[in-house]
Amino acid sequence: MSAGARAWGDEGHEIIALIADQYLRPEVRERIESLLATDRTGLTADRGIAAESTWPDHYRALHRDTADWHYTDIEIDTSRPEHGQLLAKIEQFRAELADPAASAGERLMALQFLLHLVGDLHQPLHAADNHDHGGNETQVLARGERRASLHHYWDVVFVRNLGDDAPGVSQRLLAGITPAERAAAARGTPASWAMESFAIARVEAYGQLPPAGPHGVRLLDEGYVREATMTVQKQLQRAGVRLAQVLNEAMH
User: H-helix or E-strand containing 141?
Assistant: First the structure.
């Protein structure tokens, strides 16, 4: 995967964080707000949960050694993880956030990364690779859009199809989560969530791709774009539910 790839882009991460915020226990929300208020890095627009969910991407620009914390590429043709530390980092930061002996600085960084990495886990092309660096080397084009990588389309374009106002989109997506869907999403572990994302990438993100044209560009039809946008919506909803669960458990 390209070290510069940003899973979901800022808007996707903000949507996930805003959905999660509605499922936090009141005392957990208060602790999170207090901890985020201590961020003095100036890397985000403000210290709210939505803005802070984008912090690790801005931090990565200054600390390139953290790039492979954002993905766990499972190869499509072998179903084996080949690159990335995403799962290990989620477990590490979850343990640090839950550790009362950890310093305030350690717990802040753990929180900031969890806000982001749980979201990354639900971007299908951060959990799969088809020998193209998670879609970064596969060029696609859809009607009304510019030519870009498949990875960019799943990060940004399909999220943007849901709307360009993160608070508004989050409220709409939140309203669409039924109690049964919330309960189903809450089951499993980060490892099983990664395999869920991998399956989406294998069957849909890669599996439904049309053949490459004469210039190596794959033209995405309206059906692909429609189904991908619906899948992105579901993944953002799942990520919000699961992020809240991780935080409620770590900060009980």
Answer: strand 139-142
List the one residue out of 42, 57, 65, 73 whose CA is nearest residue 12.
57
- Is the confidence at residue 6, as pLDDT, over 60? no
- What value does the mean pLDDT take over residues 106-114? 98
- Secondary structure class of 230 (helix, strand, coil): helix
What does the pLDDT look like over 25-46, one tens digit per residue? 999 999 999 999 999 999 999 9
Beta strands, E only, 38-98: 73-75, 81-83
- Residue 104: CB atoms within 10 A of its CB come to 10
Contact 110, 186 (CB under 8 A): no
User: What is the per-residue pLDDT across 47-72, written as a single tens digit (0 to 9) for each?
Assistant: 999 999 999 999 999 999 999 999 99
Which residues are registered as beta bridge partners of 149? 139
Residue 7 tokens read as 């899973």
Supply the pTM of this predicted model.
0.95
CB neighbourhood size of 216 (10 A): 9
- Domain spans of the chain, in order of start: 9-72+79-250
- The H or E element spanning position 119 is helix 104-120
pLDDT at 3 over 80: no
CATH value of 9-72+79-250 in 3.20.20.140, 3.40.390.30, 1.10.3720.10, 1.10.575.10 = 1.10.575.10
| Three-class SS state of 229 | helix
At residue 31, what is the residue type?
R
Among 30-34, 76-80, 106-110, 233-237, which is the least confidently predicted range? 76-80
Question: From the CB of residue 47, how many other CB atoms can be counted at a distance below 10 Å?
Answer: 17
